[in-house]
Amino acid sequence: NGRNCPKYQSSHDRQNFSIFLPFISLITHHLGTRKMAKLSGSTIELSNNNQVDLGHSSEGDSEEWEDMDWEERSPDTALWQHMIAGSIAGMVEHAVIFPLDTIKTHLQATNMETTKGSARIGSVQTAQEIVRLRGPLFLWRGVTVTLRAVVPAHAMMFAAYEGVILYGGAHSTQHIDASSSRVAAVGFAAGFISTIFHDLIMVPAETIKQRMQLGYYRDASHATKRMVATGGASLFRSLPTTLIMSVPYSSVMMMSNESLRRFLNPTGAFSLPTFLTAGALSGALAAALTTPLDVVKTRLQTQGMTRAKTSTGELHGAPQKFKVRYHGFSDAFLAVYRTEGTRGFFRGIGPRILQTGPSCALSWCAYESAKHFLQAR
Predict the structure, then answer these.
(1) Is the Cβ–Cβ distance between 78 and 12 less than 8 Å?
(2) Looking at the chain, which runs of residues are DSSP E strands?
(3) Contact yes or no for 197/161 (Cβ under 8 A)
(4) Contact 150/129 with Cβ under 8 angstroms?
(5) What is the structure's pLDDT at 74?
(6) Which residue spans traverse the membrane (predicted)?
């Protein structure tokens, strides 16, 4: 209830996260959870008519904050600290796990039509073939595109995430049961909102990255110029599909991550093992459930560009002009089902889980460590 939520010592945090309030209000309204917070002036009003004052602090509450050890979330953390920590987390996550992403892209971009008459290969064989034909560094081709984009994308994503958690009332780890529906609902909303900010920046970079992973274009600049010269629509063609995939993925991942962290570490004290375990499990679960959507997204982003062509080294520089095969999610979805059946929707699920589980663990550890360091400065 309201008295269990710590009061804030200033309106600084409310102002920091104000840009996210329209989105937070919309999501919390539709979630309809009993304890979900909505904003009103300088207070958080809970639907059971309890209020939490954002602008004043009683002496008892101040002493409680002073006596507490560092927690995962402090109301005094500035917006810029969340954004810097998020950027660091994004760069660490994507740089380390990038080779697995390259393997996954090669697997998902290949379909039965383009490999007819040849043996279908798995993750290990794909990796061996890439290294044999292109060398080991090819596994990191396109990583610079990703690293440039993840700085603003992850900064916005983690700032939005923390804003939702803060205003949703789920920031206090001391008083919330890990099984609470409110924790799950706020985590789901945080994933929903933060993903929108993230994907608006990352989708064009992801499209360029995946085409470079398949062997096209000389570099990122060449890719961008060629794609813009043809109208630029291909940079955002997969945005609706990406959101269809990313919103459920992030919502499930953050919802399970919030619950797991409270289950494993009820006190909320800084704990790298907790971040690693909760991040890995929540990431793997969300990845497995959303692999079919990821396959459709990859087909949209790489249509006309298959591993069967590029792995032979026949194409260099820009791709040949190709006919657009899929005009949207439904076209790509039906094409996969017609040619490959339900199995086609799970191509690359192994590398995806192996990539996403560790990447989420790394991301959360890097984020919380960077935030902890910045708060201590």
Answers:
(1) yes
(2) 37-40, 43-46, 51-53
(3) no
(4) no
(5) 62
(6) 138-161, 181-205, 226-249, 269-289
Which of 256, 336, 261, 257 lies closest to 298 in space, CA to CA?
336
Q: Assign residue 144 the CATH number of its domain.
A: 1.50.40.10
54 closest CA partner among 43, 64, 46, 41: 43
**Helices (runs of H) and strands (runs of E) counted in the chain:** 14, 3
**Rounded mean pLDDT, 74-94:** 87
Question: Helix 181-213 to helix 21-31 angle, to the nearest 10 degrees?
Answer: 120
Residue at 12 is within a domain: no
What are 363's strand-pairing partners? none
The total domain count for the chain is 1
**Per-residue pLDDT reduced to its tens digit, 170-198:** 554 444 454 477 778 888 899 999 999 99
More confident residue, 211 or 180: 211
Angle 178-183-184 (CA atoms, 0-180°, nearest 5)?
100
CB 114 within 8 A of CB 306: yes
Tokens representing residue 324 in the block? 């657009």
**3-class secondary-structure state, position 44:** strand
146 falls within a domain: yes
| Alpha carbons 41 and 31: distance in angstroms, whole number | 22
Asked, for residue 29, whether it belongs to a domain, the answer is no
| Neighbouring residues of 212: CB distance < 8 A, sequence distance ≥ 6 | 141, 142, 145, 219, 220, 223
Domain that residue 131 falls in:
80-376
The answer to whether 86 touches 155, Cβ cutoff 8 Å, is: yes
Q: Are 7 and 54 in contact (CB under 8 A)?
A: yes
In a domain, residue 282? The reply is yes
Q: What is the pLDDT of residues 152-171, one digit of tens each?
A: 999 999 999 988 888 776 55
| Torsion region of 137: left, alpha or beta (phi above 0 gives left; psi -120 to 50 gives alpha) | alpha
CA distances to 130, 175, 316, 320 from 306, rounded to whole Å, are 13, 52, 13, 12
